[in-house]
Amino acid sequence: MPKMKTKSGAKKRFTISPSGRIKRSHAYKRHILTKKDTKTKRQLRGVTVVHHSDQAVVRAMLPYA
Question: Distance (Å, rounded) from C-alpha 21 to C-alpha 11?
């Protein structure tokens, strides 16, 4: 069997933590930030964990992660 290919869009967006959880960054933090509230921008910092209902789909896109 040939090797499975990793989805290149997924490898740029997701990382696997040592405990096996999938981390992602927040949306709505890229542009048009002048009209967004400071509180909103502060809460969008950092990373969060992918929801458990989406984890199987993300793992299928990252076969060797």
Answer: 15
Rounded to whole angstroms, the Cα distance separating 8 from 48 reads 20
Total residue length of the chain: 65
Which pair of tokens denotes residue 57? 């789909």
3-state class of 38 per DSSP?
helix
Strand partners, 24: 48
Rounded to two decimals, the pTM is: 0.85
Coil, helix or strand at residue 25? strand
What's the average model confidence in pLDDT over 29-43? 97
- Alpha-helix runs per DSSP H in the chain: 8-13, 38-43, 55-61
The two tokens of residue 21 are: 């959880």
